[in-house]
Amino acid sequence: MLELIPNQLGFPLLSxxxxxxxxxxxxxxxxxxxxxxxxxxxxxxxxxxxxxxxxLSNFDSSLAHMQxxxxxxxxxxxxxxxxxxxxxxxxxxxxxxxxxxxxxxMVSWTAITDRVREFMVALLxxxxxxxxxxxxxxxxxxxxxxxxxxxxxYLLIGVWGGPxxxxxxxxxxxxxxxxxxxxxVAILAVYFTAGGTFDVLSLMNHKFGHTFQMxxxxxxxxxxxxxxxxxxFHTWLPDAHVEAPTAGSIILAGILIKMGAYxxxxxxxPFFPDATMAYTPAIMVLSVIxxxxxxxxxxxxxxxxxxxxxxxxxxxxxxTLGIFSMNSQGLEGGILQMINHGVSTGALFLGVGVxxxxxxxxxxxxxxxxxxxxxxxxxxxxxxTLSSIGLPGTNGxxxxxxxxxxxxxxxxxxxxxxxxxxxxxxxxMLWLYQRVIFGTVTNPHNEHxxxxxxxxxxxxxxxxxxxFYIGLYPNAAFQVIHASADxxxxxxxxxxxxxxxxxQAVSTLVGN
Amino acid sequence: MLKYILIPLxxxxxxxxxxxxxxxxxxxxxxxxxxxxxxSFVFAVSAFIDVLGGTIIDENLYSWIAIxxxxxxxxxxxxxxxxxxxxxxxxxxTLIHIYSIGYMHGDKGFARFxxxxxxxxxxxxxxxxxxxxxxxxxxxxxxxxxxxxLIGFWYEKKxxxxxxxxxxxxxxxxxxxxxxxxxxxxxxxxxxxFTDVFMAASAAAGQNVDLFGIEMGIIxxxxxxxxxxxxxKSAQLPLYVWLPDAMEGPTPVSALIHAATMVTAxxxxxxxxAPLFSLSHTAMIVVAVTGAxxxxxxxxxxxxxxxxxRVIAYSTISQLGYMFLGLGVGAFAAxxxxxxxxxxxxxxxxxxxxxxxxxxxxxQDMRKMGSLxxxxxxxxxxxxxxxxxxAGIFPFAGFFSKDExxxxxxxxxxxxxVVGVIGALMTAFYSFRLIYLTFYGKSRMDHDVEHHVHxxxxxxxxxxxxxxxxSLTVGLIGIPGAIISHANLFAEFLAPxxxxxxxxxxxxxxxxxxxxxxxVMVAAIGIRIAYTLYVKIPxxxxxxxxxxKGLYNLLLNKYKxxxxxxxxxxxxxxxxxxxxxxxxxxxxxxxxxxxxxAAAIGRTSExxxxxxxxxxxxxxxxxxxxxxxxxxxxxxLK
Lengths: 512, 638
Prior knowledge:
The structure holds two protein chains of two kinds.
Chain A: E1 4-6, H1 13-29, H2 34-57, E2 66-75, E3 80-86, H3 91-107, H4 116-135, H5 139-160, H6 165-193, H7 200-205, H8 210-227, H9 236-243, H10 246-271, H11 273-299, H12 304-325, H13 328-359, H14 375-388, H15 395-410, H16 412-437, H17 454-472, H18 475-495, H19 501-510
Parallel strand pairs in A: 1-2
Antiparallel strand pairs in A: 2-3
Helix pairs in contact in A: 1-2, 1-4, 2-3, 2-4, 3-4, 3-10, 3-13, 3-17, 4-5, 4-10, 5-6, 6-8, 6-9, 8-10, 8-11, 9-12, 10-12, 10-13, 11-12, 11-16, 12-13, 12-15, 12-16, 13-14, 13-15, 13-17, 13-18, 14-16, 15-16, 15-17
Chain B: H1 2-25, H2 29-52, E1 57-67, E2 70-78, H3 80-103, H4 110-129, H5 133-151, H6 158-189, H7 194-204, E3 208-211, E4 214-217, H8 218-233, H9 242-245, H10 251-260, H11 265-272, H12 274-277, H13 281-302, H14 308-328, H15 332-359, H16 377-391, H17 397-412, H18 414-439, H19 447-452, H20 458-473, H21 489-494, H22 509-536, H23 540-547, H24 549-556, H25 561-570, H26 573-611, H27 616-637
Antiparallel strand pairs in B: 1-2, 3-4
Helix pairs in contact in B: 1-2, 1-4, 2-3, 2-4, 3-4, 3-10, 3-15, 3-20, 4-5, 5-6, 5-10, 6-8, 8-11, 8-13, 10-15, 13-14, 13-18, 14-15, 14-17, 14-18, 15-16, 15-17, 15-20, 16-18, 16-20, 17-18, 18-22, 23-24
């Protein structure tokens, strides 16, 4: 049983992590100068990143419990608490959020010239809400943060986006709202069924009836599957990415779409283990379809960002495949791959942003021959491409291999089909790289391109370092994840009434 | 342990320096690079001596991936097999690095070239030194990456970057098998460490799996999956298609990666897994037959190609087939022996062809060569030595290794032996067709080209001479017992890592010698035919080509495999289908449904809006009506 270990640092770390960006946003409201707005936003986001140091260094990875706990009554009438805590599943995402926000601010430095202050305010509010989602341990509080993310993101796309931004923003909003509304209904149902509590930790131990589980799981699934996005709920993602400004795409790909998978891990699986078991075969099939379909769709794209968006659909398919394999390798691989995808796809969108800012086109055919003009950029894009296609030695390989191994043990055929996605991945990414970087310059506008400047290199460097650090020493991340992931698997299997399908699959496979 | 780690680490350091500071180092990057590989070579020699003295190294550096029962280390193993590979890789790599200084001189990507070459050497060394499957796979994919980067080195040429992508993706198809094989190994044995897997292998030999309704031994399935990986990397049927295109890369790359080292990784991997393969009769047959068919198939294409590098490329595919043929009949040591000798003479042939191309200002078409014998003497001499070795003429290196394979095949399957011998005939023919077309007869060179013909600088010819020396002598470490008893030092050295090969006894000694004489005669006949056709009566080839036009064109066009490949992958069958699916799936069906429902909601609410008329009487009427309906329902349902 999970407990909430109270925060012993002497200062409320998680609350600070949520409110530092909010304070930053408030301070921003007082300035008018765009330059000052950029610097203030940067300072606060760096401060936030700095706060992740005590978070990571004081985290006890041997425990599965929620740490840095804070709890106080909020709306006593409905038994709602302001309750925060992080475990091995959520802590790395808090850090990733902080990192990607800093990077987003840096890449927007010169790209955003219109309403800079408002842009930075939206970004900081978004950061606060995202950290809140990962730290909240009260369903009501969680829902507040969850919905709160929607607004700044909607604004980022709708105000600072491309020409078709309104369509994309509304599509994004409606899709996610549709899911969220169903989730809200389910949250209320859970609240009343469990005897009037929103407390996540006690809900984990509540045994819901089978039928209730099936309905509630489906409602939560609507919210999370849209967010991931799983096939066939994915079509908002390419549109949103294409229209979003670079910072919006980085946050969207890096963090927002991870929320769906996180929701499965934090709520769906532990609350509704029977339903999880029952729905797993269908979800595995959808995951495999996403892997192949997303990858194959990437071949058809002529837009740089759309291609990466579809590759995200494919990669997220891997992640849900791993999570629902419900064994150590699959689950931990899935969680690590969420981080990895945030790093490498964040970096890919950063790469698109760097070049878009110079050329104002995302059409792949407008590029070509950049290698001789912008060698540093070419090298950066190569590294990220390799990470994205899961080359051994990079982070992507570790996640994919662990997931496939997990899926293989669940049911070999899923791993076999998903492995085909890896072949496709190499195909569309290398083809993309070839069209952008190799060949000769055919577009006269690209003759005098400037290479990445210092600011862009500094923004990209942490991601490049993480690509190799996780690739060569993934245990640093796995050690953080282990205890909580183990606990989750045990919890689900113990609470579920049916025999774990994974165990059956292994025995049929080995033939005894 | 440190000195063993330095073997891969020195080239890696060289890569970092040449890669990061290439802009400032310019051509001095080569010095750094050569120092890196030469240092690696020195430590490799030292490791080889240690192994010769009986020391086997198997140590883990650190825990790499630990999840649940999965525990994979970064760890190195240097046993006899690895020691041999270390010598081959570091020797060839050092010589080819030196050669490249001359060959790449003046290229604007000079430093980048050496950085890639260093990175390749690093990954190749990781591949052969790994003590578990997954780390081997790191090297395996890493060399694939470098191959991709180096094939497409002249990235402004579309054909070059196309060839790079083709190589990578086709290899990924093979890796698909490799990865699944690894997973099955993990599920079966609970580990990916070589030592543990091989120890447990015989115990798992009886287990069966159900593969889509077919009952199959689990070891067989593992071996077949791994072998799919090997066919990709070592360019065997049906995944050989990338290797001929790989010749788009600079010639030293063809020599190092696409002849001597990387393409032999599949052979090495199967040999490494000898304890597994030898447990599966089925898998062994598949390996042998694939090897024999590829050896034959590629040789037929080699007969008629006009591009000097393509001939050698198809020859490489063919020779790799011989190696697999050897492995498949259980002659693991013979397969590795051929790998070793081939690395030297094929590396030599590629570098020598590079020297020819260098002399002819980039010309690769043999129809535009001829009569070069007296103009580039050193290149000519080493080319002949390399070709004699390839053809298998006594006492050149290829003779010993190929004969040992054929001898083992003879004892195992006569049909495969016949295929192998015919292949040997073709090998001798095409190697000397190349020699005669290039160096003999009348000059067919363009005037400008002819004017500039010059021998390559010392920095290129000295490595050629060293390789020629090895091509002449390296076979002597494996003199068959039939000639001199206990002189096959190579096989004896490798004996501890392989299951014993089943050779004939003492009474077959005469037979073995007889077969040797026979196969040398076959090779001599091949050379003689080439001589007649291309030197004595040069009109014949055209007449033959004319007479058997269909067959000739089929071979010249490489059985049209590339056309099919291009039709499907490059010209866009795949892309068109993707576009079609995108329009139908995402745009029409999914978004169509979403937009339709949005519109439907809009229409519905439009209707709803009409109810809001603002007349109180209508509201009252509707309310009353509703009340009546509800009451009615209540009584009906009660």
